[in-house]
Amino acid sequence: MGLLSFLGFGKSKQKAANRNTVVQKNRIIYHDEFRLMGTNYHKQEAFAAADYLSGHEHYFGKTDKELKSYMQRTLKPVYKYNELKTIDVLLQREPTNPNDKNAVKVLINNTFVGYLPAEIAKRFSSCIGNPKYRYDAILTGWGGPYKTLSSNLEKIVTREKELYFNLDLTIWHLK
Question: pTM here?
Answer without folding.
Answer: 0.78
